[in-house]
Design goal:
Blueprint: H1 3-11, H2 40-59, H3 65-87, H4 92-119, H5 130-143, H6 156-159, H7 164-195, H8 199-215, E1 231-235, E2 245-249, E3 258-260
Antiparallel strand pairs: 1-2, 2-3
Helix pairs in contact: 2-3, 2-7, 3-4, 4-7, 5-7
Length: 277
């Protein structure tokens, strides 16, 4: 399954949700949300997060601030994908912002791994390095053969290797994969936001339109054709026309002239404090 298809199934509330509240009925007007565990980007960042925790425990001084920074960056990359997916029901803009945060966190983590290799004069694999290509092939296999494994077992030969350079390079490959997937996901979210928006965006647009209607100048009330006094918009309270509006002379009861309400009169405010004849 491609990442694009996974992203679409996430936003449309795919049937394979692992959200414990997936069975609850979505409120009217809200898009289905959740399903992030089926996103390949979430699956890859989960492997990156777990691998980073293990890497820091095995190869870095636990007292170093770098450990906290790397673990937090890896965690942010994963958690913001999940949070963005959950927020998609009410705001496409929030989902897009959180996925961008995930992307930025992974870039930060990527630099940390590159710094680790450079500062220790360890070799960083090139894009066409045989081991880098093998790691990418594992990722491609699991993208086309669901369900994808998120426990990192498929990458054990590299992530469990005693050589820190091999582990760091493998995680770098995984980060590049995750960034590629997130770039596609962000592009899809941008298109969706432009064409559809989310619940909060549609609600804001509806509110703006309603205020525009309310601020529109009202038409003047018509004059009574008999006495010339201004007419008032009234509501019939009884009879077969109860509840309907009509024009009544403001000089009532002296003048009892009425006139039916026309479509062009709908924007004129009614006076319901005056009893209808």
């Amino acid at each position: 399954m491609s990442e694009q298809r996974s992203a679409n199934s996430d936003r449309s509330g795919g049937s394979a949700r692992s959200d414990p509240w997936a069975g609850e009925k979505t409120p009217k007007g809200l898009r289905p949300s959740g399903g992030y565990r089926n996103l390949r980007s979430f699956q890859v960042t989960t492997i990156v997060y777990d691998a980073t925790v293990s890497f820091c425990e095995r190869f870095l001084d636990k007292r170093s601030r770098t450990v906290d920074q790397m673990v937090q960056a890896a965690r942010s990359g994963r958690q913001n994908i999940a949070e963005g997916s959950r927020a998609s029901a009410t705001s496409s803009q929030t989902e897009l912002r959180l996925v961008n945060v995930a992307r930025a966190s992974l870039d930060e983590l990527l630099l940390d791994y590159e710094d680790f290799l450079r500062q220790r004069r360890l070799t960083q694999w090139g894009k066409d390095d045989p081991q880098a290509r093998t790691v990418r092939e594992v990722g491609m296999q699991h993208r086309t053969d669901p369900p994808a494994r998120t426990d990192g077992a498929a990458y054990a030969p590299w992530l469990g290797n005693p050589d820190p350079a091999v582990v760091a390079n493998a995680v770098i490959c995984l980060i590049h994969q995750a960034n590629y997937l997130l770039d596609r996901q962000i592009a899809g979210l941008e298109r969706q936001f432009i064409h559809e928006g989310g619940y909060s965006e549609r609600l804001a647009a509806a509110r703006i339109e309603e205020r525009r209607k309310q601020d529109r100048p009202q038409q003047p009330a018509p004059a009574c054709p008999t006495c010339g006094q201004a007419m008032i918009l009234r509501t019939a309270r009884k009879g077969r026309l109860a509840g309907t509006q009509f024009w009544g002379c403001s000089a009532y009861p002296e003048c009892q002239v009425t006139r039916p309400l026309e479509a062009s009169d709908r924007s004129v405010g009614s006076d319901r404090s005056v009893r209808s004849p």
